[in-house]
Structure prediction request, 226 residues.
Amino acid sequence: MTLRLVVFDVDGTLVDSQQQILAAMIQAFEGIGLVPPEPAAMRAIIGLSLPVAMAQLAPEVGARDHDRLAEGYRQAFVAQRAAGGAEADAPLYPGALAALRALAERDDTLLGVATGKSRRGLELLLDCHDLRPFFITSQVADDHPSKPHPSMLWQAMAETGVDAAQAVMLGDTGFDMEMARAAGVTPLGVGWGYHAPARLRDHGAVEVLADFAELPTALETIWRQG
Prediction:
């Protein structure tokens, strides 16, 4: 039996955490006296590790302020959690749970996560939605360079023993698509997240799904062609 691996991005792919992320970003910028970026600019960097994201959002300030922004963002999320929000307020996209269940039932398919979240943030989110049992490997920003560096996917494949030719990266950003290409993994985009479908295709997506119901057919097509 040939083992296959499907690696999921989290924010914008499995869960819609846009409002929580934008709120934390605004608090981080205002906390050090900077004008927050426009929402579109903030959505564009979702998926990057915090230091890289802050450097892109505020190129006019130095590394010290980028660190302050990253810490302010973390503290804003802590405050959201304390108020009963954050991960608890980020809903799963329609069809996400059913898709995970269907894939998890297959003997030949392993599931993983590759996210710009911290380990703590990911684990809280997985526990909130009872998703932890689905994933055999989880790669986070704490342990790797920021996307689109392929380190997360290299490690996911090393942990599962699956070859790149049998692996698929499912994500909503160009960073996910570039990371997959760099790792030799098939990039599969989703059209409900934070980057437009055209951007995903420009960055290498072999297909962009309109909803989770299209995932089984897309995977079978990829693996049959491989």
